[in-house]
């Protein structure tokens, strides 16, 4: 609980708690000391009065042996209340604890009917005297002093008592004064504590606010007031220096982020971890930027080369396929007479021409990919490649029927598969090929595996334009394309495309 409090609250609670505790302890000690001293002094005074009355009674009884304790002179001695206030009295009791003189508080009552079974009377019976604070026969707290009185033929005791409320009046006045003093002092201590705690906590809270701003990456605009304490002033100066260095560091980081790798920056010391890390980051960013520019140029060159090859392929196919068929049709039409049987040949050539144009069109952009989706396009590609070659191509498509990848992902997977199948037909001498497409938690995965002859020098073949284009297509979608092969064990193409580039 205390840990959750602010420094101002902690200072206030600590100072107030300490001040109030010391004030209370001092007040209680003073009050107890004064009360004890007054109690002892009053008991001593009562003891002196009790002793004096005992001596007077004993002297009177010694001179008048036939006088009873109810004699008027003895009554006079007991009723003399000088020095014992308005509630003080002296009275006699016998061994049966019966009162043997008139009670000041019950003058109409027979004394023998009053039983004085008090702690003070019990002590007199046991030890011959008493001096203590206890309830009297009225059950009122009194200061009581008592002794035996020497009398022939009968044993009696004299007790002198005064009510505690009257005897302790000076103490009660002191108590009231102490209460007023404690309340006044507490208010004064509270005011001083709040002022002192505020004076101590305000600069610390300002420093805390500055540190929190720096920790959040924000440079505070406000200035912290001058500190009255040396240690806080040193902390303030250190924070101001940290603030300036933070500005310099952020400026350097901003310049580096904007591509200005020549911005000036020096670490604060050999132990400046952040400064050295920023310099290393700048150097790595500079190197990476240069590498990316080189890769972009290479990628652009590879894409242009691929586009030129596609144009070359379409031109060659048009020239060698459609061109030859159209030339044959032209020659037939230019002959002087077109025999009836040649009409069928012309129709057949026109059908072949249409099929050839359709084949070239599908190679350039398969209509099934845009209309029916990736699975249909791959199935169509599989059928075309299987029909033209002796390779048995199978497709395992394990994506959900509701799955629809975006066009960039679909065309990327299709072109990579198309390139891999073309390479397989040209170089691998394979008889079987499996296209497997599925997904896991984060990736779309595709493998094209054949049982061809493979190759043992991947460094030469893997740097070819076709395989490089496959890798470039995957990299454009933050994916990857890997070729796994060895001589006599076939070739497997692994493709991975992250979900962030697909639509579910």
Would you give an account of this structure?
With 504 residues, the chain is of the alpha+beta class. It is rod-shaped, with a radius of gyration of 58 Å. Among the domains are: 2-173, Beta-Lactamase (2-Layer Sandwich), CATH 3.30.450.20; 372-501, Heat Shock Protein 90, CATH 3.30.565.10. 59% of the residues lie in helices and 13% in strands. The chain has a five-stranded mixed beta sheet. Strands 1-4-3-2 form a four-stranded antiparallel beta sheet, with helices on both faces.
Instruction: Write down the overall geometry.
Output: rod-shaped
Distance between the termini: 51 Å
Structural class of the secondary structure composition? alpha+beta
Which spans have pLDDT < 50 for at least 5 consecutive residues? none
The CATH topology of the domain at 2-173, please?
A: Beta-Lactamase
Number of strands: 9
Query: What is the residue-mean pLDDT, rounded to a whole number?
Result: 78
Q: Major β-sheet, in short?
A: 5 strands, mixed
Give the helices and strands as they follow along the chain.
HHEHEEEHHHHHHHEHEEHHEE
CATH architecture of the domain at 2-173: 2-Layer Sandwich
**Strand neighbour order, sheet with most strands:** 5-6-7-9-8
What percentage of the residues does DSSP assign to strands (E)? 5-15%
Q: Would you identify the CATH H-level superfamily of the domain at 2-173? A: PAS domain
Question: Helicity, in percent?
Answer: 55-70%
* CATH class type of the domain at 2-173: Alpha Beta
Rg on CA atoms, Å? 58 Å
Please tag this protein with its features.
single chain, alpha+beta, four-stranded antiparallel sheet, five-stranded mixed sheet, Heat Shock Protein 90, Beta-Lactamase, 504 residues
């Amino acid at each position: 609980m205390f840990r959750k409090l602010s420094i101002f609250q902690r200072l206030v609670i600590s100072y107030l708690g300490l001040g109030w505790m010391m004030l209370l302890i001092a007040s209680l000690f003073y009050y107890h000391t004064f009360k004890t001293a007054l109690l002892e002094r009053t008991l001593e005074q009562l003891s002196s009065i009790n002793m004096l009355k005992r001596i007077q009674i004993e002297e009177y009884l010694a001179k008048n042996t036939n006088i009873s304790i109810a004699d008027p002179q003895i009554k006079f001695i007991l009723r003399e209340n000088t020095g014992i206030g308005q509630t003080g009295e002296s009275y006699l009791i016998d061994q049966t604890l019966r009162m043997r003189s008139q009670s000041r508080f019950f003058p109409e009552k027979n004394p023998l009917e009053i039983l004085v079974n008090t702690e003070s009377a019990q002590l007199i019976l046991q030890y011959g005297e008493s001096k203590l604070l206890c309830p009297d026969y009225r059950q009122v707290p009194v200061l009581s002093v008592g002794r035996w009185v020497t009398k022939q033929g009968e044993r009696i005791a004299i007790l002198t008592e005064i009510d505690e409320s009257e005897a302790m009046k000076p103490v009660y006045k002191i108590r009231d004064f102490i209460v007023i003093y404690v309340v006044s002092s507490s208010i004064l201590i509270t005011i001083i504590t709040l002022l002192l705690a505020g004076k101590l906590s305000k600069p610390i809270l300002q420093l805390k606010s500055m540190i929190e701003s720096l920790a959040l990456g924000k440079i505070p605009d406000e200035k912290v007031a001058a500190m009255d304490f040396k240690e806080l002033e040193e902390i303030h100066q250190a924070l101001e220096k940290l603030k300036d260095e933070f500005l310099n560091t952020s400026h350097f980081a901003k310049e580096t982020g904007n591509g200005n790798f020549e911005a000036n920056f020096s670490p604060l010391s050999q132990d400046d971890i952040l400064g050295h890390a920023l310099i290393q980051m700048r150097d790595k960013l500079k190197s990476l930027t240069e590498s990316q520019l080189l890769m972009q140029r290479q990628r652009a060159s590879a894409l242009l080369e691929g586009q030129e090859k596609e144009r070359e392929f379409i031109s060659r196919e048009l020239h060698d396929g459609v061109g030859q068929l159209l030339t044959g049709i032209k020659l037939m039409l230019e002959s002087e007479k077109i025999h009836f049987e040649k009409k069928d040949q012309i129709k057949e050539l026109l059908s072949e021409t249409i099929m050839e144009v359709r084949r070239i069109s599908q190679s350039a952009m398969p209509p099934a990919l845009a209309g029916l989706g990736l699975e249909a396009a791959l199935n169509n590609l599989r059928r075309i490649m299987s029909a033209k070659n002796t390779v048995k191509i199978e497709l395992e498509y394990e994506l959900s029927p509701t799955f629809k990848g975006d066009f960039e992902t679909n065309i990327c997977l299709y072109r990579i598969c198309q390139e891999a199948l073309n390479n397989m037909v040209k170089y691998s001498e394979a008889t079987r090929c499996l296209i497997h497409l599925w997904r896991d938690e984060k990736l779309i995965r595709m493998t094209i595996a054949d049982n061809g002859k493979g190759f043992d020098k991947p460094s030469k073949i893997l740097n070819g334009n076709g395989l490089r284009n496959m890798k470039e297509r995957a990299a454009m979608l933050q994916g990857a394309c890997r070729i796994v092969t060895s001589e006599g064990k076939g070739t497997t193409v692994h493709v991975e495309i992250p979900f962030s580039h697909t639509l579910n």
